[in-house]
């Protein structure tokens, strides 16, 4: 899952939005991070583990051409955010713009963010990354943005083309899997180890 999905899953499981977002940026032991972020980091890792091991995702990964196989997990995450934004009203009671502004406000005010998240937080907010996922153009821009932040951007040379080829297959996987993930996030939030609770 990517940024929007982790924020959405945090919201529906009644846990801290930005703490869940921190999971992609908080390396090492959970205990080494500030207490108010620990539950979100733990939940983020549980969600990623469920996703990575699910048969729907494993099957989808196998469908990617060799040209993008190594970055296919990233492409699935980004495209799932695209479909979540596109079908947003089916998954959340607030309008997407309202939810995004709430997330940006928390991102602005949450203390002790991991340094790598703190570094890109202004761009996330100023360029409205979350809302931009609604359109295919926004998805393509996100793919380009990720490629520029990684050490081997050439791995993404065929990414947009390969996502286009599997566009419907990714949608079917998202629509089938994401409601299950919503249920998992609520279950796992209630099972958070006590040492990680805020």
Verbal overview:
The protein has helices at 3-12, 17-21, 35-53, 55-63, 72-86, 96-109, 115-126, 129-132, 136-149, 159-165, 167-190. With 198 residues, it is mainly alpha-helical. The chain is globular and about 45 Å long. The two termini are 23 Å apart.
What's the topology here?
Blueprint: H1 3-12, H2 17-21, H3 35-53, H4 55-63, H5 72-86, H6 96-109, H7 115-126, H8 129-132, H9 136-149, H10 159-165, H11 167-190
Task: Write a compact overview of the structure shown.
This protein is mainly alpha-helical and 198 residues long. The chain is 67% helix and 0% strand.
Give the averaged pLDDT, no decimals: 95
* Helicity range: 55-70%
**Count of beta strands:** 0
The largest pleated sheet is described as: none
Characteristic terms for this protein:
198 residues, 11 helices
């Amino acid at each position: 899952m990517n940024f929007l999905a982790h924020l959405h899953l945090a919201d529906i499981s009644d846990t801290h939005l930005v703490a869940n977002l921190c999971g992609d940026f908080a390396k090492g032991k959970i205990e080494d991070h500030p207490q108010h972020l620990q539950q979100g980091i733990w939940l983020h890792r549980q969600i990623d583990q469920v996703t990575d091991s699910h048969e729907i995702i494993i099957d989808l990964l196998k469908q990617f051409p060799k040209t993008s196989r190594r970055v296919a997990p990233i492409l699935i995450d980004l495209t799932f955010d695209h479909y979540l934004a596109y079908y947003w009203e089916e998954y959340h009671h607030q309008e997407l713009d309202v939810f995004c502004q709430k997330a940006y406000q928390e991102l602005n005010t949450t203390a002790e963010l991991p340094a790598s998240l703190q570094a890109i937080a202004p761009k996330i907010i100023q360029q409205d990354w979350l809302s931009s996922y609604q359109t295919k153009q926004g998805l393509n821009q996100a793919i380009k943005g990720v490629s520029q932040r990684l050490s081997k951007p050439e791995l993404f040379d065929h990414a947009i083309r390969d996502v286009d080829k599997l566009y419907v297959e990714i949608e079917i996987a998202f629509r089938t899997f994401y409601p299950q993930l919503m249920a998992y996030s609520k279950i796992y939030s209630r099972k958070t180890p006590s040492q990680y609770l805020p």
